[in-house]
Amino acid sequence: MADEQKYDVIVVGGGPAGLMAGQWLARYQRRVRIIDAGDGRNAVTYGVHGYFGVSDPTPGELRRIGQEQARGAGAEFGHGCVESIEGEKDDFTVTLSGGAALKARRVLLATGLKDIVPETPGLLDFYGQSIWHCPDCDGPEVVGKRVAVMGWGEGIAKFCMYVMTWSRDLVLLTDSHAADMSTEALEALAEHGIPIRREAVIRLEGEGTQVRRAVFHEGPPEEFEAVFFHIASGAASPLAADLGCKLDEDGALEGILDVDKEFQTSVPGVYAAGDIVPGSRLVIRAASEGARAALGIHKSLIGEARRIG
Fold first, then answer.
1. Looking at residues 272-299, what average pLDDT do you find?
2. Would you say residue 167 lies in a domain?
3. Cα(209)–Cα(88) distance, integer angstroms
4. What is the pTM of this model?
5. SS3 141
6. Cβ-Cβ contacts under 8 Å for 14 (sequence gap 6 or more)
7. In the chain, N or C: fewer CB atoms in 10 Å?
8. What is the number of other CB atoms lying within 10 angstroms of the CB of residue 14?
9. Contact indicator for 199, 217 with CB cutoff of 8 Å
């Protein structure tokens, strides 16, 4: 394929990190294409909170704005799924699910994470409105409310301590899973007055988009006004694993990638930004790191003739 048909960068993922990277790469006069599967992690939530300059847009609206800005800067954008990435630095082949193959000198992975959502009947009726998975994003929505936390194991006790930033009226629902917590964790829950309902949750009930209670297999219902759940999350795409990108030691269980200061992974020419790199899972952070990754990629593409020393 002739050089004029090759992209400088292909960005895989059209969320905040990918769109911001695409916009800034285009501003750096790079030929860039963003490929988006359209299945963002936060698609169900009613609003993106705390994003500078925009008041609680829906995820779809924020993406629309990002796509408009990226295209306005000169980036190409298209919907689709990437099946594979092969090759090496300066000569990658990105194959789409329809069979089309694109060439690129660099690849940026902005593929994000996916959460395991409890299969509790009724949960999806309220998910993104009064049930959430991210207290950093939606914690301010529950100030002064009674909140149920769904999950189990040692990690859920730590999660409860974190949710107390916004509400101290909590109840923990373990949904009949084993009470696999240390004595320290159980004592912390007791000290802060957080009861544990261990019965199986047979359904969540409420009105409209407002959750109101959990109904159990045994025992009385539990009333509350909001729910946070914390089960597990993992990489939304296998592409990084297929490429052999090294995992971050502290985030290996979630598929978090090890990147250098320029956001390059352990595979030369492959970069990563957003939820799949170490750090918080905030939308505004993902966008910021998309811009930082774009700068790192741009610098890597500057020819030797323009380098001094």
1. 95
2. yes
3. 48
4. 0.91
5. helix
6. 22, 34, 35, 36, 37, 38, 63, 66, 67, 77, 110
7. C
8. 24
9. yes
